[in-house]
Amino acid sequence: MKLLYPIVRVGAVFEKSFKPFHALEYNTSCFACDNLSDKWHFIEISGKIIMNMEKNNHKGIAVTFIFLCFILAVGLCSCGSKSADNSETQIAIQDEVEALDVEQDVNPEAELVAEQETEQEVEEEVEPPAVLYTSVLEPDKSFVFRDQQVYYDIKKCRDYEIVGEDLDYKIIVDDNTREVILQYEETDSDEDWHNNYLFFPWPLKLDNKTVWTTYGYAKIYKSAQSIPLNQWMEQLEKHPDYKAVIWGWSLGSAMAKITARHYVIRTGGEFMIDELMTFGDVKCWFNPFYSVKKYCKRIREYCNSSDLITWCMPFCRRDVKCKVGPKFSLKRAKQSEYNHTHYEEYDYTKWQ
Predict the structure, then answer these.
(1) At what angle do helices 215-223 and 251-267 cross, to 10 degrees?
(2) How far is residue 282's CA from residue 317's CA, in Å, rounded to a whole number?
(3) Which of 146, 177, 187, 221 could join 251 via S-S bond, C-beta 3.0 to 4.6 A?
(4) Is 323 helix (H, G, I), strand (E, B) or coil?
(5) C-alpha span between 268 and 285 (Å, rounded)
(6) Which residues lie closer than 8 Å to 151 by C-beta, 6 or more apart?
(7) 78 has a pLDDT exceeding 80
(8) What is d(CA 52, CA 330) in angstroms, rounded to the nearest whole number?
(9) What does the pLDDT look like over 112-146, one tens digit per residue?
């Protein structure tokens, strides 16, 4: 009894403040028990105890008891919520375990088949490199000669493939003219200019034969590892009834002529080149005796007398010299760059 005395004194002090708690047995929203019948049973017992205490004039103990019941109810509420959270956590863990079990039960052969199908789809989506479109540019009606149009197409084309030491090339399958075209671009970088100046003689091995050209041209062509020629010949095999055509401009003219000789060496001269055409043609051969001319149905190496770039490498030679444009003059020679980049303006009547 002595142990209950302090609790009774606390109840006496707060007796007036806790008088509203006499309505406890009617206010069921103060408790959150998991079982509804347990909640009503708890309220019923608590109410009876409180009424007995009032009858025996133990109001202080009654108030203290109410206070303790309130604390107990709050504890039950929190325990109930925690148990609910724990049950939800256990359910989630159980679901994850079941999912893992399902994944482990998957047939490994089915997984292998799915991976192989995915790899096949990826391979089918990959496009082949470096080729092709059916026409270069829309024809310009102002051009009288086909060769003017060809030069203009080379000049305006910019989506070249680049290999080796900045060798720019393009392979075109033209279904309208039924031609497979290998086209080389002009000097377009500092590296190209540097190689142009390396004009001393140098051997270049083409398959099983050696030809003599300049060191710069040999270095560029060798760096490409025959990729342009291989891709061009691959398209010729796919289109056996199409013409074999090679075009080039400026530095590209040297690459075009070396490629033509390489093609003759590789095929043993059994197949003719339907057309070899170059513009702003540069000399590239140190061998004075060999010529690819007899293996070409049509060969045109265009140069202009006032285009000083075509004068370079005086000790080299070209197979055919096709002059176009006005005769040489010092006044026009001062505009050598313009002359070298406007072959579409010249008259090609003599060479048609």
Answers:
(1) 60
(2) 9
(3) 187
(4) strand
(5) 20
(6) 249, 279, 302, 343, 344
(7) no
(8) 133
(9) 656 666 555 544 444 444 444 444 455 666 789 99
> Which residues partner with 243 through β-bridges?
179
Domains and CATH numbers, the chain: 2-104 (no CATH), 146-351 (3.40.50.1820)
Please give the backbone phi and psi of residue 334, each rounded to the nearest 5 degrees, phi first. -65, -20
Question: Could you give the CA distance from residue 352 to residue 346 in angstroms, rounded to a whole number?
Answer: 13
pTM: 0.62
| CA distance linking residue 11 with residue 5, whole number of Å | 10
Taking the C-alpha atoms of residue 216 and residue 119, their distance in angstroms, rounded to an integer, is 44
Q: Which residue has the tokens 């109930």?
A: 80
Amino acid at 289: F
DSSP state for residue 325 in the 8-state scheme = S
Gap between the Cα atoms of 213 and 203, Å rounded: 6
The answer to whether 346 and 303 have CB atoms below 8 angstroms apart is no
**Burial class of residue 124, CB neighbours in 10 A (0-12, 13-18, 19+):** exposed
At which residue do the structure tokens 């008259």 appear?
Answer: 347
Distance, in Å, from the CA atom of 159 to the CA atom of 324, rounded to the nearest integer, reads: 28
Q: Tens digit of pLDDT for each residue in 176-204? A: 999 999 999 998 888 887 888 888 899 99
Rg (CA), the chain: 48
Count CA within 13 A, CB hemisphere, residue 106.
13
Distance CA 213, CA 289 (A): 13
